[in-house]
Design goal:
It is a single chain. By secondary structure, this protein is an alpha/beta fold. The protein folds into two domains: about 350 residues, Aldolase class I (TIM Barrel); about 60 residues, no CATH class. Strands 1, 2, 5, 6, 7, 8, 9, 10 and 11 form a nine-stranded parallel beta sheet that branches. Strand 1, helix 6 and strand 2 form a beta-alpha-beta unit. Helix 4 runs antiparallel to helix 12. The longest helix has 21 residues. The radius of gyration is 22 Å and the shape is globular. The protein binds S-adenosylmethionine and iron/sulfur cluster (SF4).
């Protein structure tokens, strides 16, 4: 059994490493860029529309806007940037919580070690398989994020085994097998050698949130005696991932721990650092807001709680500051918040979500808050979410082709910046949407989806050369006939 990372290994790695988050500099930038200036605003928005990363000064300027009309302009441009890079697609996925055992004591988390009220559970591999068969066979998911606490019993070997189990669990249909095609991982920061193993096991995106970029607040909520108490080890985990060959990385902040403007600047500095060092920014950015967790008083509210209005502002500013990045909004947020925010930049949403360990396949135990990390806000089914999005002209994509065709890291960054990735994605979104509608949708969602697909195909005809359009029509006909997993 692998143990959690050793302190001496961490210390060795961190020799000569300095933080690339300079608190004084961030505060200075926020203080120096307070003037609402329309000419400057227009220049900055133009830069975002050209899919260029903004500078810290430009981002601080946006964060400080107080004029309502200027914010409207920001929202509209964020929406235009999202459309330019990702068009009307929302990628969907489900989280799979594999274990809630954890050695750390993050004050906000229901899984923290000192929380004696939580029922601890680590899924055995056959239980993971059961969950996956349910997610694939009953809901039609194609993409998962597997989630783990940090614990000796869920070290790298367990994580790699769980990935292999997920990929190998398939369900037979009339015309072939269906299964999970991409597994992202949210787990504790690891060493380069462990990350190499994760890469080999077929990880999609490696996701770790810094929680807060503010060093003092970080120390306050993560006791120094725990592994997670090491700010710098966490800050550098995406560097290690890149060095280990994982070039799709997901960063994020737990909003509500510290001032949201400071945190957005932290995300930007992290993105710039990765771009500078590796030529690749974050594949995704997440912005969970602190939610009440079982028997966790800290999670009930802090003075940095982010309002719905400020959440919309920060989503729009991140969309403009790091215009190429994917942006994930999870079911932590209720339906009304989610349906407002996708317009200003969201590209990925989970749906049909359950976060209790083993809850998907346990049909009698619909919500088991004593095994959950926090309470979720959007409890709609996958079908309801997809139907809602389709009614608003948004296509749900189950596409996982990118990483299987080598469109990851630098390759995808370039394609995203130039709008090329969007083209492949459009075709794959239609094919995977059709596949899901035929296999899983209720009559209402099917009919909404059918209308949307008709419109999408007309666009494909306009955008693509005849040869690609012809091949697409052939794939579409085969998909309609039950063939699985056709992609460009
Ligand atoms: N143990 C790993 C770690 O800490 O990186 C990953 C798993 S943790 C289950 C995933 C994320 O959930 C954390 O990074 C944190 O941002 C978020 N989280 C923890 N407590 C939360 C709460 N009360 N409300 C919302 N999100 C929370
Ligand atoms: Fe453990 Fe992660 Fe929860 Fe912290 S956030 S207590 S590390 S599961």
């Amino acid at each position: 059994m692998m143990s959690v990372i050793k302190k001496r290994e961490i210390d060795k790695y961190l020799v000569n490493k300095k933080s690339f988050i300079d608190e004084t500099e961030i505060n200075k930038k926020l203080a120096a860029n307070k003037k609402n200036d329309l000419i400057r605003l227009n220049e900055i928005l133009k830069k975002s529309l050209a899919i260029e990363t903004l500078s810290p000064d430009e981002t601080a300027f946006l964060l400080n806007i107080s004029n309502k009309d200027y914010w409207q302009k920001i929202f509209e441009t964020a929406s235009a940037v999202k459309k330019k890079v990702y068009n009307n697609r929302i990628v969907t996925f489900a989280p799979l919580y594999c274990s809630n055992l954890c050695v750390n004591n993050c004050m906000y988390c229901g899984f923290r070690n000192s929380n004696e009220a939580v029922v601890r559970k680590r899924l055995r591999l056959e239980e993971i398989r059961k969950e996956v068969l349910w997610l694939v066979g009953k809901l039609g998911h194609k993409r998962l994020i597997s989630v783990y606490g940090e614990h000796p019993s869920t070290g790298i070997d367990y994580i790699c085994e769980s990935l292999r189990t997920i990929y190998s669990a398939t369900v037979k249909t009339k015309k072939g097998y269906i299964g999970i095609r991409r597994v992202n991982v949210n787990a504790a920061p690891m060493s380069i050698s462990d990350l190499k193993k994760l890469h080999k096991a077929g990880i999609g995106t490696y996701q770790v949130f810094q929680e807060t970029y503010h060093p003092q607040m970080y120390s306050k909520v993560h006791p120094a005696s725990t592994i997670k108490g090491n700010y710098l080890w966490r800050l550098y985990c995406m560097h290690r991932a890149m060095e280990a060959g994982i070039d799709d990385v997901g960063i994020g902040v737990l909003f509500g721990l510290y001032d949201w403007k400071f945190e957005v600047m932290g995300i930007l500095y992290h993105a710039i650092e990765l771009e500078k060092r590796f030529g690749i920014g974050p594949h995704t950015v997440s912005f969970p807001r602190l939610k009440p967790a079982f028997n966790t008083p800290f999670s009930k509210g802090t003075k940095y709680q982010v309002s719905d209005d400020d959440l919309k502002k920060l989503v729009a500013v991140i969309r403009l500051a790091v215009p190429y990045t994917g942006m994930i909004l999870t079911a932590r947020e209720p339906e009304d918040v989610r349906s407002k925010l996708w317009q200003v930049g969201i590209t990925q949403m989970d749906a049909g979500t359950k976060i209790g360990i083993g809850d998907y396949s346990d049909e009698h135990d619909l919500r088991s808050s004593d095994k959950e990390q926090f309470l979720i806000g959007d409890t709609r089914s996958l079908d309801e979410v997809i139907g809602d999005l389709a009614g608003r002209g948004m296509i749900t994509s189950f596409c996982t082709a990118g990483y299987r065709c080598g469109r990851t890291g630098k390759n995808i960054m370039q394609l995203l910046r130039t709008g090329q990735e969007g083209k492949f994605c459009k075709l794959n979104a239609i094919l995977t949407f059709k596949e899901w509608l035929d296999d899983f949708a209720c009559a209402r969602t099917k009919s909404l989806g059918k209308k949307l697909i008709k419109k999408e195909i007309e666009e494909v005809k306009k955008i693509f050369p005849k040869s690609i359009y012809g091949k697409f029509l052939q794939y579409y006909a085969e998909t309609a006939n039950g063939k699985k997993d056709l992609y460009f």
